[in-house]
Design brief:
The structure is a single chain. The chain has 251 residues and is of the alpha/beta class. It has one domain: Alpha-Beta Barrel (TIM Barrel), CATH 3.20.20. It is built from eleven helices and eight strands. Strand 3, helix 3 and strand 4 form a beta-alpha-beta unit. Helix 5 crosses helix 7 and helix 7 runs parallel beside helix 8. The chain is globular, with a radius of gyration of 17 Å.
Amino acid sequence: MRRPLVAGNWKMHGTRASVAELIEELRQLEFPAEVEVAVFPGSLHIAQVVAGLAAGAVKVGAQNCAVQAEQGALTGELATSQLVDAGCELVLVGHSERRLILGESDEAVIRKFAAAQVAGLVPVLCLGETREQREAGATLDVVGAQLAAVIDALGVESLAKAVVAYEPVWAIGTGLTATPEQAQQVHAAIRAQVAQADAEVASGLRILYGGSVKAASAAELFGMQDIDGGLVGGASLNADEFGAICRAAGN
């Protein structure tokens, strides 16, 4: 039985004051025991969030990491060993905004994924297609190629200690959401691709949906067979909305 995971990606939002307020609101919530909950603050606020949520069940992750686990001469980057030292347990890898806006390649994603696991972090591997790719009927080809890059380089067994997040690029920050059926089709294809290499890894792999997840749509999305939770963007900045999404995952 796969334990649902709801992860809140705060992206480039927050000040010390607003983060403190959000931490306090999260501390007041009662999350379902059967749901794993995590938040991914900006790197400036990781220490603040780790300290503020230390007494609760919410895990803290990072939004990005360096391509190496060890510290060294890489100005502006954060080694995965440093993220572990700061209290992180997970890290996003290959988010579409980094792939598309910052030009992050499959090679960089593979190195970051590997660095995360070397340091003991759980990588959350993000996959997704643009609107143009979906309209061209290339969704499964694009997502499959992004997934295959990691499997081919690191082996399917690397996914046994990872999470995958399907995030259609056209639904991120647009208010658009894939229908439950559209999302399920891609999630099922991801699981089937992994199963071709290792059925046991596939059955245990948690695949999250990310793409303008809201409380109103969460229950129907999470009701799909291969959707194991959500990677939540803007809605995770509202504690009440985020709590409702987590409760939907528990139901």
